[in-house]
Amino acid sequence: KRFLAIAQNLHQLKNYSGLLEIIGGLKNTAVLRLKTWKELSRKNTIKFEALSEVVSPAQNWKNYRPLINEDPPFVPYIGVFLSDLTFIKDGSSTFRDDGKVNWRKMSRVGETITRIRRVQKTPYFNLGEPDSKILKYLCTELFYLTDKELYQRSKLVDPGSRAV
Fold first, then answer.
1. How far apart are CA 89 and CA 112, in angstroms?
2. Who wins on pLDDT, 139 or 105?
């Protein structure tokens, strides 16, 4: 429930990068297999499913793309922009058959970079001063586990559960 509340706040703050990270973490096999999901209320299950849909990569990010076309401020998931640039780069040649520059391709690259710059130039919400204790934790005390390590810890917490 706590991470779902954090995800809801991130969505309200238009921090789509953070939202995607929280939802991705909750959808990790090591987390999904835990029996605590069965204890989640129907209301919270619906909220989780709705937030998952917002940042779903299905159909080329169909539900997420309208959000990053809105006016900033927001924190985008940069991977979508990078995928767009890769698609443009690989999808057509830089020069036409007659040797001239493919201006349509260059225009699409420019439009994508302009969208990124627009977000970068707009200040994000003034949320006050950062909490020094949280910053210290994030910068010095937080540790990372591989998927295999996470799954092993999940088995220690809840040995009998199976993947959903």
1. 12
2. 105
DSSP annotation of 137 reads: I
Residue 125: which residues within 8 A CB-CB, separation 6 or more?
A: 13, 73
**Distance separating alpha carbons of residues 162 and 97, to the nearest angstrom:** 56
Structure letter (DSSP) for residue 138: I
CA distance 159 to 151: 10
- Percentages of the chain per state (helix, strand, coil), in multiples of 5: 65, 0, 35
Give the per-residue pLDDT at 164: 54
- Going by pLDDT thresholds of 50, 70 and 90, the confidence category of residue 162 is low
Token pair belonging to 105:
């391709």
Identify the H or E element spanning 116: helix 103-121
* CA distance linking residue 86 with residue 84, whole number of Å: 5
**pLDDT score, position 137:** 86
- How do residues 48-96 score in pLDDT, each as one tens digit? 999 999 999 999 999 999 999 999 999 999 999 999 999 999 999 999 9
- DSSP bridge partners of 69: none
Residue 58 token pair: 């299905």
Residue 110 buriedness (CB in 10 A; 0-12 / 13-18 / 19+): exposed
